[in-house]
Amino acid sequence: MFGRVGGFLRTVLVALLFLCLLAGLAELWLRGRGFPIRTISSQVSDSLQTLLEPSGLYHHRLRPVSRVQGEAVAGRSAEIRIDAAGLRGAAPLAEKTEDDYRILVLGDELVLGAAVSEQSTLPQRLQQFLSRVTEMRLEVLNAGLPGDCPQLALLRYQHGLRKLQPDLVILHVDMSDVGDDAVYRSLLTQGAEGEVCQHPALRPVAVAPSRGVQLLRDSALAGWLLSRVRQDGAELLAIRAESCGQQDYGWIMDHADNLQLQIRHALAPIEALRKCVEADGGRLLVTTCPVVWQVVDGSHCPQATRRCRIRGATPFRSRLPFQSLAAVCAESEVRFLDSSPRFLKDAEPARLFDSELPGLSERGLAFYARLIADYIVANPPQQW
Predict the structure, then answer these.
(1) Strand (E) positions, 39-192?
(2) Residue 74 clears pLDDT 60, i.e. is over it
(3) Residue 209: exposure state from Cβ atoms within 10 A (0-12, 13-18, ≥19)
(4) Considering only 185-189, 227-231, 250-254, which range has the smallest mean pLDDT?
(5) Preceding omega of 341 cis (within 30 degrees of 0)
(6) DSSP code of 255?
(7) Is the predicted pLDDT of residue 234 greater than 50, yes or no?
């Protein structure tokens, strides 16, 4: 009797030790591959979390003076250099003179260009095109931030980027921004420095976490398991994406729910951003481009289609996002470039979009930059 119980306990103990060994090896392997221990923003892919750190003013920011190389970014061999101001690429010119013209580009990971080289990003492509038609010393700064939206862009400009004294601010509004705004809006508070969006990790806690909880927070394995639950949990449990907050692209669908209030909240910061930019002597241009599911079939990027919970026949034909943006910009007296008609008319539209990510390919980024450059040349900001 006791021999059988002892044998069973030894088997259980060996199994537990084996599981602990596997967990330890998995922890070391994930840390060696640079897997993020913590999720800074749920609206950002796991491969970009290592670029971010919490912010007490605008939820999260790029880690200043940092580099991420190769496979740490979306599986692509691209180096991400972040300067002291939180911009990708070389630091801005130390002193801006009257002969310099500075453009600041705000937006999410499409602007940052995490999967492409520095020279292939949207801001750099824009600088290349505009430099051919001006003799001024032109500087286009990349202020892209993964998970950005108009509200965070406004806060980032108010609490830091305005010091760069841009002559023109370009705000790229992505089709995911309405969903992003819904996540961050509940964190908005009124602080001593005005409205802020404080990251929950920076809020004071009454009771310090126990050692066990702290170990779980600092575990790459626990972070990996949580990321898998966040990515695949809804599908495995047959839960509707909307019920777990995953409706980042809800407003682009042909039979979208009534999101008018959510859309209005997400786009309202555009007017406040215009006032801030113009108070500093600059001009604001809002631009947008379609995502792949508005132009070609979702089979072009099956992994992204599944990960983003896209449902229904694609491409979607709804013009609601572009009409909503146009209406808000008209009311706010903001210049607006809707590039979607040109994307739809391209002879090979599928080549403009990445086949793995819900963004533009290198060809698409160059195409979008060319459209923005053409608009600026045809409508000089000085005349606005």
Answers:
(1) 52-55, 59-62, 66-68, 80-82, 100-107, 137-144, 168-172, 188-191
(2) no
(3) exposed
(4) 227-231
(5) no
(6) T
(7) no
